[in-house]
Fold:
Amino acid sequence: MKKKDVQKIGRFVIETEAYALLKLASDLPADFSDTIKAVLKTKGRVVVSGVGKSGHIGRKIAATLASTGTPASFVHSTEASHGDLGMITRDDFCLLISNSGETSELNDILAHTRRFGILTAVISSSINSTLMRAADFKLVLTDAPEACAIGMAPTTSTALTMALGDALAVSLMEQRDFKPEDFKVLHPGGNLGLQMLTVSQLMRKKKEIAVVKQDLNMENIVSRMNDTGFGVAILVDETGALSGVITDGDLRRNINNIANSSPREIATLNPISVKPLDLVSVALEKMENSKVYVIVVIEDDRPVGLLRMHDILRSGIK
Structure:
């Protein structure tokens, strides 16, 4: 028997799931908005549960919720039946996941939520299923075939569930006005944590760098640059506001005229700058766009520090 072209199979699977996702966007569950409102009013956590592939997706949804400002946890349905129901309180909100809506392992959790009046949403493909009929909020997946050859392996359905979970998490995130600095608190490790570093955490402080008046002669400015060792002099006007930057590169380019030039003739005037609380990633983007290796840090138009590309690379940010 001739095997099918694996390239065609791969494309078919992705196209099938992509079509289903677009269909879900058009058929977003009617209870979606009410679910968001209910979670926002919840005093406790969002408790997610599911079995098998739905359980794997449920763990991911709970993790995404928790990392974006909505307290959440995953409770294994079998363990729930053996004491872990105590983890689900009256202040919580339950999210149960079952493609068929007939997963018997979720019955004890469902009974617990009904007994104690715990609001519950169910993600399922079957509107008339046992779980869906008992749910306070019905998050019905769009009708779409599984992407496998036998039409049974969880493929499209898990992709749809994952996407709906992401939609819930991001909607809640935006409703809570979750900011980059909040994200940093919950993601201190790895490259995500590094991306959330602020300029103030990496910059060289004002006392370490050469901040000089713009009317100082070039001999003194070069001397100050040598003393600090960073190869940069930051010029300020009579009010102390940033007016320009002189780098080693500027000195080399003007080597023949330095003695007869004023600092402003050599400096880069109105240089790019950032503020101490800006993310380092913002500073890095500005530096790359302007093709420079240092950027002045200002507060109220006055220089308070200097951030170098070298300092950013040493931090591990990519």
